[in-house]
Design brief:
Elements: H1 9-22, E1 35-39, H2 51-69, E2 73-77, E3 79-80, H3 84-97, H4 107-121, H5 124-131, E4 142-143, H6 147-162, E5 166-176, E6 181-183, E7 188-204, E8 209-214, E9 225-228, E10 242-244, E11 251-256, E12 268-271, H7 277-286, H8 312-325, E13 329-342, E14 350-359, H9 366-373, E15 378-380, H10 383-393, E16 398-399, E17 401-402, E18 412-414, E19 420-422, H11 426-437, E20 448-449, E21 453-454, H12 457-460, H13 463-466, H14 477-482, E22 485-490, H15 495-509, E23 515-520, E24 524-525, H16 542-549, H17 551-560, E25 568-569, H18 572-597, H19 605-633, H20 637-660, H21 670-687, H22 692-702, H23 722-744, E26 753-758, H24 763-766, H25 769-776, E27 778-783, E28 792-795, E29 800-805, H26 811-836, H27 839-844, H28 847-874
Parallel strand pairs: 1-2, 3-4, 9-11, 15-23, 22-23, 24-25, 26-27
Antiparallel strand pairs: 5-6, 5-14, 7-8, 7-10, 7-13, 9-12, 10-11, 14-16, 17-21, 18-19, 18-20, 26-29, 28-29
The chain binds one RNA strand of 75 nucleotides through helix 7, helix 10, strand 25, helix 18 and helix 20.
Length: 875
RNA sequence: GGGAGCAUAGCUCAGUUGGUUUAGAGCAUCUGCCUUACAAGCAGAGGGUCCGCGGUUCGAACCCGUGUGCUCCCA
């Protein structure tokens, strides 16, 4: 079979993914094996694959594939969340293009369009994950608005309400006066705007004025206080005094609070609790009156007393004129500030108070805090425990209502008089309302369900058990087997939105933690360190990258740059490194395949030469496998990949294959070939979770296989023999030093040399001398008891090597290098002696440390002696 | 404003309870090589005030204090 010059991934990747799916390797059923369960952090149903997903899902796939190869029953559940805000925005946009306004549709008509959109365009990302090789159990694909899931979300709402954890309360929201709807924070676009800062004088009760600065003078009519910094000398005398709101002469108090910045405006702040987020909080703190001066369409309300029914911006103009006439304007400054605009209607957003549904978090979250603090759930890296604790100890109540239609509709029904009941169905709510209001004549048509729906996180916090119907069908076989799940892989920015809440829900509804380990990935940034985002447009097209480099290379590239817990600076050059690695593997395969053609049962020469190489690599493989195992259990994935990369590229390709390689057109013995193939197979096993496609391909090209690598059990690493490892390391070091000496003396690679070894133990070198000759291009090796004159001298610990070349040697250059080495050794020795002559060191340090320093001294002295001898022989 | 994290080679990072040779790796750089698996490669090399200052210690990249810079989260 002819193998291509370079590795070409596209067809190979498509072929194997289909094969794995056909064999149903990724589908899991409960059995007697240990389960390894991972639930995917559900991407938005509107989502397309970006770098964050790529990193996140690569990591999950590595963990899952590795567990599978370790004989566990691996189950990785895919799915999406309904993403109420994002999806509703998409659907509204699509309708707008068709010329349909959302306001012209009934709720159910709108939802029909939304479902249609979801079926047609939703979940593209799940297709894209296949391209990446993700070994997800597709039969389990879940969705937060599937009927069972929907019912569970409603059940949880009713349950928490009945337990007293859910209540209604006021909250400042972003109000779109044109669409007459609340906006989520994500739907508000902040723009830099040229405004005016009006300095307005308020008359004081005890005479004189206090001046405040505002950009929204129309809100003056809703003022409830004036606030100053308690440390502000200018206003100290005014604490607790009163001033009058201009034009309407309402009396308001002057209160001190550290919230006010001394250096902004005049240092005095007008407090308008009904129309500003921060003012509202000040209002809460000091129990100020809330005067809502605006109607839902942005006109002034009766509470404003003046300008009733006039638009807010017309009022801004008019009130400034009136204030000016009344002598209240001190000055007007130009001012640049940020103003929020509605993403939908592009009008200026008004902060407005509104009744919302809340979850009371304090009590509910207590078990979730201790679970993480006491390491029942392990965070990786552990530094996120601090962050988690801080948030959980200061947890705030959770506003769960959203003014949207796409989502789980809040199961609360209201009468016209404002009485309400929470229940799973309208009928149950009606029964409750009949009782609570005493009005037995109420009918279903008299009550109206809440129009809002629930925050998406209020459904995704049930994800780890509800994907197994753990609430809708509690104690079913699946949830009992798969829950608690094993590892959650997610981004640190949703530690509170999602991770904390899943833990809370897990304890509340299953009485168990939702997962054993949480691995937080870094945030993917571009080369300049900027977070990748749609708005910056700095996120590359992943599918194009996969086409260009191959999925294995993309997986490699993104993981190699991603140390545990640190952000990753994404640079395409790391994908190139991944592609080059693929190619390296491919070429190693080509070499081994070439040996097949030269197989000769009678060949024994190469076997004798290769024996050392085989013995060494076998042990090296065991040693590194153990290292990788350790790194993986510590979730140091990128380190593990680096270790495997180096094992394959350096140890296997650069050392082992070169050592075991037969001479030009020489035969290969079956032993060498078979051993090499088995090493290659084990390397593919190790690498498979990281780069599944090429490893599966090579595994099958190496020899006919009875099973696929994807479901093959990994070898258990045997204990490595330290002595063999040490002689391998020595051999590598000798070769490198000799090659370096050749280089520095300008010997061309093709110039053969003679090598003399002066060693304490010549036998030690006999087994490796064929390799040594091959690797340093020596045509002869001999042993000597005395220094050889006019040669290049190389010093190892105790042993010396002499390179004899046909070329004239540059003795001046050699001398110069020896002197440099000598100077280094002298400095080193001096530092060791200094340490050893310090009495306190000798008294306090552990004996083994002192012995070590003594050895350093002896070694350095020995090395200096040989250098001096060499210098003498040159002179 | 409150909180958290980070700072080691040009870049990205390792560096275990303080002592294993005056600090390691990958990438990048430089030098020499188209050597029959691989130039997407081979062989080799150079490169560091471990952010500044102070302290603890016989001994600090590591522990403590402090300053500076960067990043993130919450409001």
């Amino acid at each position: 079979m002819e193998l291509s010059k370079n590795y070409i991934p596209t067809e190979i990747e498509a072929k194997w993914y289909q094969h794995w799916i056909d064999r149903q390797y990724f589908s899991s059923k409960p059995d007697e094996r240990e389960a390894y369960t991972v639930v995917i952090p559900p991407p938005n149903v509107t989502g397309v694959l970006h770098m964050g997903h790529c990193l996140n899902n690569t990591i999950q796939d590595i963990l899952v594939r590795r567990a599978r190869m370790q004989g566990k029953n691996a189950c990785w559940v895919p799915g999406t969340d309904h993403a109420s805000i994002a999806t509703e925005a998409k659907v509204v946009g699509m309708l707008r293009e068709k010329g349909i306004a959302k306001s012209s549709l009934s709720r159910s008509e709108f939802l029909d369009y939304a479902w249609e959109w979801k079926e047609k365009y939703g979940g593209i990302i799940l297709q894209q994950l296949r391209k990446m090789g993700c070994s997800l159990d597709w039969d389990r694909t879940s969705f937060t608005m599937n009927p069972d899931y929907y019912a569970s979300v409603i059940q949880v709402f009713v349950d928490l309400y009945q337990k007293g954890y859910i209540y209604r309360g006021k909250r400042m929201i972003n109000w779109d006066v044109k669409a007459k709807t609340a906006l989520s924070d994500e739907e508000v676009i902040y723009k830099v705007v040229q405004s005016k800062l009006y300095h307005v004088k308020y008359k004081l009760e005890n005479g004189g004025f206090i001046t405040i600065a505002t950009v929204r003078p129309e809100t003056i009519l809703g003022d409830a206080a004036i606030c100053v910094n308690p440390a502000d000398e200018r206003y100290k005398s005014l604490h607790g005094q009163y001033a009058f709101v201009p034009l309407i002469n309402r009396k308001i108090k002057i209160i001190p609070d550290e919230y006010v910045a001394l250096d902004f405006g005049t240092g005095a702040l007008k407090v308008t609790p009904a129309h500003d987020m921060n003012d509202y909080q000040l209002g809460q703190k000091y129990q100020l009156e809330i005067i809502d001066t605006m109607n839902d369409d942005g006109t002034m309300s009766e509470a404003a007393q003046l300008y009733i029914g006039m638009d807010r911006f017309a009022v801004r103009k008019k009130i400034v004129e009136d204030l000016e006439t009344a002598g209240h304007i001190e000055k007007i400054e130009e001012y640049t500030n940020q103003v929020g605009f509605s993403e939908r209607t592009d009008v200026v957003v008004e902060p407005r108070l509104s009744l919302q549904w809340w979850v009371s978090m304090k009590e509910l979250s207590a078990p979730a805090l201790s679970a993480v603090m006491e390491d029942e759930i392990h965070f990786h890296p552990t530094k996120f425990k601090n962050l988690y604790r801080h948030w959980m100890e200061n947890v705030k109540d959770w506003c769960i209502s959203r003014q949207l239609w796409w989502g789980h509709r809040i199961p609360a029904w209201y009468t016209k008089d404002g009485a309400f009941a929470v229940a799973k169905t309208a009928e149950e709510a009606l029964d409750q309302l009949k009782k609570s209001t005493g009005n037995t004549a109420l009918t279903l048509s008299d009550i109206h369900q809440d129009d809002d729906c629930l925050d998406t996180w209020f459904s995704s916090w049930l994800w780890p058990f509800e994907v197994f119907k753990g609430l809708s069908d509690p104690d079913n076989k699946e949830v009992s087997y798969y829950y608690p799940t094993s590892t959650l892989v997610t981004a640190p920015e949703i530690i509170f939105f999602w991770v904390a809440r899943m833990i809370i829900a897990g304890y509340e509804y299953k009485g168990l933690k939702p997962f054993k380990d949480v691995y937080f990935t870094g945030i993917v940034r571009d080369k300049l360190g900027r977070k990748m985002s749609k708005s910056l447009g700095n996120s590359p097209d992943l599918l194009a990258l996969i086409d260009q480099y191959g999925a294995d290379a993309v997986r490699f590239g993104i993981l190699i740059a991603s140390p545990a817990g640190n952000d990753i600076l994404f640079d395409e050059s790391s994908l190139e490194q991944g592609r080059n690695f693929n190619n390296k593997l491919w070429n190693a395969l080509k070499l081994v395949k070439m040996w097949e053609g030269r197989l000769d049962n009678a060949a024994t020469n190469d076997a004798a030469d290769a024996e050392f190489a085989i013995n060494w690599f076998e042990n090296r493989l065991n040693q590194v496998s153990t290292e990788v195992e350790e790194l993986m259990t510590q979730f140091k994935l990128s380190e593990a990949l680096k270790t495997i990369y180096s094992l394959i590229w350096d140890d296997f390709c650069s050392w082992y294959l070169e050592w075991a390689k037969p001479g030009f057109e020489q035969p290969v013995s079956p032993m060498v070939l078979n051993k090499t193939i088995s090493f290659f197979e084990r390397l593919m096993e190790l690498l498979h979770p990281f780069m599944p496609f090429i490893t599966e391909e090579i595994f099958h090209l190496l020899k006919p296989q009875t099973e696929d690598l994807t479901v093959k059990l990994q070898h258990k690493a045997a204990k490595a023999d330290e002595n063999i490892l040490a002689s391998g390391a020595l051999l590598k070091e000798v070769i490198t030093k000799l090659r370096d000496a050749r280089n520095k003396n300008q010997l061309k690679p093709k110039d053969p040399v003679s090598l003399y070894i002066m060693a304490e133990d010549n036998k030690g070198y006999q087994s490796i001398s064929p390799i040594l000759m091959k690797q340093v291009n020596a045509n002869k090796v001999s042993y000597t008891a005395e220094a050889i004159p006019n040669t290049i001298v190389i010093n190892m610990e105790k042993d010396k090597f002499f390179i004899e070349a046909a070329q004239q040697l540059d003795t001046d250059a050699i001398k110069e290098r020896l002197l440099k080495d000598l100077a280094y050794e002298q400095n080193f020795l001096a530092s060791v002696i200094k340490k050893l002559s310090n009495e306190k060191f000798v008294q306090n340090a552990k004996p083994e440390i002192i012995a070590l320093e003594r050895k350093k001294q002896a070694d350095a002295e020995a090395r200096m002696k040989t250098i001096e001898e060499s210098l003498k022989s040159l002179a």
